[in-house]
Design a protein that fits this description.
The chain is α/β, with parallel strands linked by helices. Helices cover 33% and strands 29% of the residues.
Length: 356
């Protein structure tokens, strides 16, 4: 049984705690705010999962600051991730640290310090892009290995979702101005909050052998006033080091949501969907002009995190090497580099290159 600390008693902390408990891991949720801990116990967790799990421990951060855990999960706002992660590593030596996405703010501050400190402690750093570990992704990867696509030609991603669902899951927030969500410099806005869209593009590019993103050209619809500063809509053109060209489109406007990837090859295509319909993700594909195939994959919201936590378990056990993990620090850092380049491109109205 692994010992886990989830830092942050908000929505993500509860999702991660539940996923860990399904594997019978020992879980402590901690927060700086005792009211947040009470809300977890009396509201968030039981409303989602039917009842409070009495095996979960609750504590203020200061009460468990120097206690050692096998896994530390950072589930706080993006602009606090790096400072909290560094502090955790100064006080303890977890085997794995899982940081919620996005890894940091677009400034990428103190990431080298975090990486070096983790190496000195022997801690494997991960970033929580959980859609790289879900069943629809694994199914798509298998189709790619079978040669369904032929030569890859493009990847196009749509991650279009009104953020009303986020505020529904966080009713204590009055709106985007009340948290990091309304501020792109704090890791919010559509590009930061929906950075899964960039990460999944990068993931499939790696699977296809097309390498990392090296060129970014972005257009954004910015909302800026005395209360907020964020992109409500972003269109991002990408080119990889091996010449694959594609796009990512994301917003915080679309209802109902659409989360999809289209991978086009010279022999066929694969379409990847999240929440294709109630209770299901999906894959559609066609090869060599044959019939279009549809694969529905049963999925609940907790499943989005369950596969990721199982993957963390595989890292802990040594079955997965961190350098081969789709949620490694390096993959999360590559996503942050694209986020930073996208904002720079949009603000300066020019193409931005990323040196690899």
């Amino acid at each position: 049984m692994y010992k886990v600390k989830a830092v942050g008693a908000g929505s993500i902390g509860n999702h991660m705690a539940y996923a860990c408990r399904q594997l019978n891991w020992d879980v402590t949720i901690c927060d700086i705010d005792s009211a947040a801990l009470e809300r977890t116990k009396n509201d968030i967790y039981p409303s989602r999962y039917g009842a409070w799990d009495t095996e979960i421990k609750l504590a203020l951060n200061s009460e468990v600051e120097t206690e050692n855990f096998d896994v530390v999960i950072i589930g706080t706002p993006p602009d606090t991730h790096i400072a909290i992660a560094i502090n955790e590593l100064k006080n303890s030596s977890p085997k794995v640290m899982l940081i919620e996405k996005p890894l940091s703010t677009p400034e990428l501050e103190n990431l080298n310090e975090l990486e070096e400190l983790a190496k000195s402690k022997g801690t494997k750093l991960c970033v929580s892009y959980n859609h790289t570990t879900t069943q629809n992704t694994l199914f798509a990867e298998n189709l790619i290995r079978k040669g369904v696509l032929g030569t890859p030609k493009s990847i196009n991603v749509q991650w279009l979702e009104h953020w009303g669902g986020i505020f529904g899951a966080h009713p204590w927030l009055a709106g985007p101005h009340d948290s990091y969500l309304g501020f792109y410099k704090r890791g919010g806005g559509s590009t930061g909050e929906h950075s899964h869209c960039i990460n999944i593009f990068q993931h499939f590019s790696r699977v296809l052998g097309m390498g990392e993103v090296t060129e970014v050209n972005a257009t954004m619809d910015m909302i800026e006033n005395d209360k907020v500063s964020y992109d409500q809509n972003a269109i991002i053109a990408l080119r990889t080091e091996n010449g694959l060209v594609g796009s990512v489109i994301t917003d915080v406007l679309t209802k109902p949501a659409k989360k999809a990837v289209r991978i086009q090859g010279d022999k066929g295509f694969i379409e990847w969907y999240v929440n294709y319909k109630d209770g299901f993700d999906a894959i559609m594909y066609q090869s060599e002009g044959g019939e279009i195939q549809e694969e529905l994959i049963s999925k609940s919201r907790p499943d989005d995190f369950q596969n990721e936590i199982k993957h963390v378990g595989d890292i802990l056990s040594g079955h997965v090497k961190i350098e081969n993990s789709p949620i490694s620090f390096e993959t999360g850092l590559q996503t942050m580099k694209v986020i930073q380049a996208a904002y720079s491109s949009a603000m300066n109205k020019r193409l931005v290159q990323i040196n690899q």
